[in-house]
């Protein structure tokens, strides 16, 4: 039985993305680490895993997607990430600096 308004049995094709996507996290010194993540998993899980792997403090590391900070609780779907390979930049917070004379 065809859907209403679908006499030929040809429906509108829904675009589906693979369940998993490949995400690259690049450190300040240029090291690249690849992760495979489910599209409906919050990014925070990936970022915390990255920090554990390199013994970094999650609270003291900033992450950027296309040069912008993003909400870590969002999933790749919610962030509109469609490409198979996405690059996130990881930057360690720096304290101090600006030493006066």
From TrEMBL:
SUPFAM superfamilies (UniProt xref): Ubiquitin-like (SSF54236)
Record domain Rad60/SUMO-like: where: 21-91
PANTHER family xref list: SMALL UBIQUITIN-RELATED MODIFIER
UniProt superkingdom: Eukaryota
InterPro entries, A to Z: Rad60/SUMO-like_dom, Ubiquitin-like_domsf
Gene3D superfamilies noted in UniProt: Phosphatidylinositol 3-kinase Catalytic Subunit, Chain A, domain 1
Protein name: OLC1v1019162C1
